[in-house]
Amino acid sequence: MSGLDIFAWIVLIVLIVTALVVFITLAMLPGKIAGERDHPYQEAINVAGWLGAILGGVFWPLALIWAFAHRPPETAEIPETDAADAEEVPAQ
What we know:
By secondary structure, the chain is mostly helical. The chain has helices spanning about 5-35, 40-55, 60-70.
């Protein structure tokens, strides 16, 4: 084997590993988004994402849209104010 053959095998192995990492990352993406957004159907979205990736992308876009369809609950807290800082509005 020459040096070019070894280089070609290394490039092939790197490409295969990269393709597998991209495949796994994209398959996990809808389930991960649903989990972060606290979606009530997180497990179903996860399964649809994996099935979509395995079946060539049939269900994957639907799973991704479904993961974003749920609006997470509002967690913004109202800041408390001191009674001394608050101005009273005169009654009319």
